[in-house]
Amino acid sequence: MSFADKLILGDDYVIEEHARFEVIRRKDVPADAILDAVRQHREHTYEGNVHVIKQDVKTQVSRVVMRKFDGSSAVVKHYPHRGIFRSYIHRVFGHPAERCFNGYRHLERAGFHVPPVYAFVSKMAFGGVAECLLLMQDVHEWGEEFDRLFYALVAAGEDGRFARTKALTSLAHELRRLHEARIVHGDLKTCNITIELRAEGDYRIGFLDWDDVRFGVEIDEEIVARSFAQIHASLPGSLPVKDRIRFAQEYFGVRKLERWHKRILLHSDEIARAHKIVYVTREGDKIETWSR
After folding, report:
1. DSSP collapsed to 3 states, 156-222
2. 116 near 108, Cβ under 8 Å?
3. Which pTM value belongs to this model?
4. Rounded mean pLDDT, 206-232
5. Tell me, what DSSP letter sits at residue 155?
6. Is the dihedral of CA 75, 110, 247, 200 positive or negative?
7. Dihedral of CA 87/62/112/180: which sign?
8. How far is CA 22 from the centre of its chain?
9. Contact (Cβ atoms closer than 8 angstroms) between residue 65 and residue 73
10. What phi and psi values does residue 10 have, to the nearest 5 degrees?
């Protein structure tokens, strides 16, 4: 099975076979640079080149150096083989790596701020997909994770209040733009959101990790509430009621919340507490209960 006919490619990608791998890469990134980055990730050399970001059952994510390209850092997201049954499910319903790649490409074409994907690498085995790897530009080349910046602004106290408000406002506006395009991210932990301070003094928001993306969705109150809840649950203790209200006001584009706005906000809080606190560590997602 080839992924070539399943991915949103265009004229800027080429398809090649290298040993047992199918490599779908951007034309401006040499094949030997892609294979070297994959080799770094697979061998886990830890000689100043590889840094593990996350490693659990579903995915293994690491940061590597594009030694044979431009020397910048890149991120490898690795979907390992999870058995013949899982491979069959992926063949029938689509592989999460396929959804992630197409999510990035779709958003890129729609004008959203996402890192360019350098390559999609796959290896087949008897019965289906053995493994897939996505290689993309490291977001730290042009921004940082939203939760890291936000925690720093919270720690700054009153000095960081104005910047914190601007960051939340920018995120609310970009989430609204995403929903206006009828796109549901599905996993809006703040570590999957990037933020960049631009020369103009405002913030630019980007989104990562599109494994659960859905397109052409009718956005209803439940989707909005769940999106709010995912953000809330990944900033525990740092998003007080006043900030949540301001976030909702910016998302809905109103100065005063109406009853149905407040209903969504209260429902998002219920969802966040029911699903507990979720954040990402090197060992994978961590889930904690809320402290009262």
Report:
1. CHHHHHHHHHHHHHHHHHHHHHHHHCCEECCCCCHHHEEEEECCCCCEEEEECCCCCCEECCCCCHH
2. yes
3. 0.84
4. 91
5. H
6. positive
7. positive
8. 24
9. yes
10. 90, -175
Spatial separation of the C-alpha atoms in residues 135 and 153, rounded to whole Å = 31
Q: Is the pLDDT of residue 279 over 80?
A: no
Among 121, 287, 97, residue whose Cα is nearest residue 210 = 97
Q: What is the pLDDT of residues 93-145, one digit of tens each?
A: 678 888 899 989 988 888 898 888 999 998 876 656 678 899 999 887 777 88
Among residues 83, 68, 84, 85, which one has the least CA distance to residue 119? Answer: 68
Pick from 120, 103, 121: nearest CA to 112: 103
Are 37 and 74 in contact by the 8 Å Cβ rule? The answer is yes
**Burial level of 254, CB count in 10 A (0-12/13-18/19+)?**
exposed
Taking the mean position of all CA atoms in its chain, how far away is CA 209?
A: 3
Domains located in the chain, CATH noted: 13-139 (3.30.200.20), 143-288 (1.10.510.10)
Residues 6+ apart with CB under 8 A from 234: 147, 188, 189, 190, 191, 277, 278, 279
For residue 30, the SS3 value is: coil
Pick the closest to residue 234 from 266, 197, 282, 268 (CA basis).
268
CA Rg value for the chain: 20
3-state SS assignment for residue 131: strand
CA angle 10, 106, 34 (to 5 degrees): 60
